[in-house]
Amino acid sequence: MTTTSNIKLAPAEGRRADFANLGNRFMIDAAQTDGRFALIEHTIAPRALAAPMHIHEREDEYSFVLSGRMGAQIGDDTVEAGAGDLVIKPRGIWHAFWSASDEETHVLEIISPGEFAGYFEELAPLLSAEQPDFAKLGEVQARYALTMDLDSIGPLVERHGLRP
After folding, report:
1. pLDDT beneath 50, residues of the chain
2. Which of 4, 56, 63, 146 could form a cystine bridge with 87, CB 3.0-4.6 A?
């Protein structure tokens, strides 16, 4: 039997795994799609870097901007997207994204296949710790076949006028 909770998600519903500059609300879990995809709503703080340059070995990401402006570097290309725009971040390509506006930016992120959505849940408690355990962060990234370039943070912040 289908219930309303299976077919409708209200704005305040869904699990959360938030970081300092990036809110993550789980809207459709990978388990609900037999792993084919997951849907997460990202809320990016104004003029904030959501993720430095990184690369996924297994997932493609599709970012549909609901409000605000999202900046992204995908390979050597830099784009800025507004409400109604879709940004494609394919697997195997280095990319980063941020809020390019003075207000929050809201993005619907489709991740395919969807298993990678678990990364946000595993990372949130590690990042909220007073002293992040970088060895554990590395373990989580390795488990999800993600490579991150932390040295890209400074240049991205400076180039795009982001908050440090």
Report:
1. 1-4
2. 63
Domain of residue 44, CATH code: 2.60.120.10
**CA within 13 Å, CB half, 159:** 14
Cα–Cα distance for residue pair 57/65, rounded to 1 Å: 24
Residue among 129, 127, 121 nearest 25 (CA) = 121
pTM: 0.90
Which structural domain, as residue segments, surrounds residue 39? 17-154
pLDDT digits (tens, 9 = 90+) for 50-68: 999 999 999 999 999 999 9
Rounded Cα–Cα distance for residues 99 and 137 (Å): 24
Residue 164 lies in a domain: no
Amino acid at 124: A
Taking only the tens place, the pLDDT of each residue in 21-51 is 899 999 999 999 999 999 999 999 999 999 9
CA distance 152 to 43: 21
